[in-house]
Specification:
Blueprint (H helix, E strand, L loop, with lengths): L2 H10 L3 E4 L8 H8 L4 E4 L9 E4 L5 H8 L6 H10 L6 E2 L7 E3 L20 E2 L3 E6 L3 E5 L3 E3 L4 E4 L6 H7 L5 E7 L3 H8 L8 H8 L4 E3 L6 E3 L4 E14 L2 E2 L5 E2 L2 E13 L4 E4 L5 H8 L3 H9 L4 E6 L8 E6 L6 H12 L5 E5 L8 H11 L2 H4 E8 L16 E8 L28
Parallel strand pairs: 1-2, 3-18, 4-12, 20-21, 21-23
Antiparallel strand pairs: 2-3, 5-17, 6-9, 7-8, 7-11, 9-10, 10-17, 11-14, 12-13, 14-17, 15-16, 19-20, 22-23
Helix pairs in contact: 4-7, 4-9, 6-7, 9-10
Length: 438
Amino acid sequence: MSFRDFIQRADESGDLIRIDRSVRTTYELANVAHALDGKLVLFNQIDGHPGWQVCAGACSDRRYFSLDLGIPVSELLPALAHALKNPEQPPIVERGPCQEVVLEDFDLGDLPILLHLPQDAGHYIASNVVIIKDPDLGRNMCYHRLLRLDEKHFAARIVEKRGTATALSKTTGDFPIAICIGVSLATHLAASMSPPPGVDELSVAHALSPTPLVKCITSDLEVPADTEIVLEGRITRRTVSEGPFMDLTETMDIIRQQPVIEIDLITHRRDPIYHALLPGGLEHKLLMGMPREPTIFAAVNKVVACTGAVITPGGTSWLHAIVQINKRGPDDGQKAIEAAFRGHSSLKHVWVVDTDIDIHDPAEVEWAMATRFQANRDLVIMPDQPGSSLDPSGTHEPGQKSRTAKMGLDCTIPWGADMSKFQKGEYGSIDLSKYIPE
């Protein structure tokens, strides 16, 4: 369903918080949204931006994805894995709600773009998905944070050796781009995934939930037809300083020379709803981490029987994972560790546990480590590996892939051991109402 349809459904379910007091885009809105992190919030009055609403927190809880897709939370990982494996080509429609209003004369300052923190370089869009076409691989969708420079231009953080950077390296001159703000939750999930090269993320989105597309006005790019706001433009070959900006790890990312985007046209729905995503917040973390769970799950399942995988918020929803396996051989734990790193290349630390451990409960995972893990036997250390640019403790060289040491912990029961030594005792159930009056 569309972004605004989801907001309506959340309102009907009692999950929406409405803020009717006028708020400023400089610090105030971000501070209020942060105080309500994990909640879905709709700001109805934006100081200096009449006619606009701003929504925050749409992707900050797994329950919201469950509500949007109409499936239980427990079915999210299988649904993502199925869509990733079975993408469906979305239809192209003649007209879309995203083009109800067309602005050829505009000022980017009219959009309610937030200034989140005093340390930030300026007003940033963090919720947008961008759509490009690689000359060899075709359509690609991903995220690039955008620093507003003036009334027509942004600086974009484009990560080296990934989809957009690779496409740019194959071309010369200005490169068409479509920037979409206020897309469906299914589109957000698909944009966050890392399918193999040539697999269209919008087809993954359509496999999750119907996602019709409409052609842009100034280019041959296609965008989700029900997007709230679309900025059509070009990535130029000019670069400027971009950053600092608080990233997923809640630390400030560095200043880099990054490409400038020039906007040619803005289209939007009537009464547009701007999606504000807080950098470093739960929405940022969940969108980054959850779509990596099916890729880890699939990679581990190639070598051992994997029954679950979760990216943990304590690891900034990017650097840490818990993998659950049905152990069937002495080396399954180590095989799972190595496969998990293949399934998510930015992963830094991974814990592997048995099926009796709840991977969503950090205390149970720690218990498994305390009772089943021996460092001299079960610790895997992989020095000087490709790592994440988001990890401030890694080694970062401009233009080069970041490097890090990786660690895996096999917290499964040792093969051939007396199983009774590793099982928890179980108390019997009791009806407390017989003992404590209500």
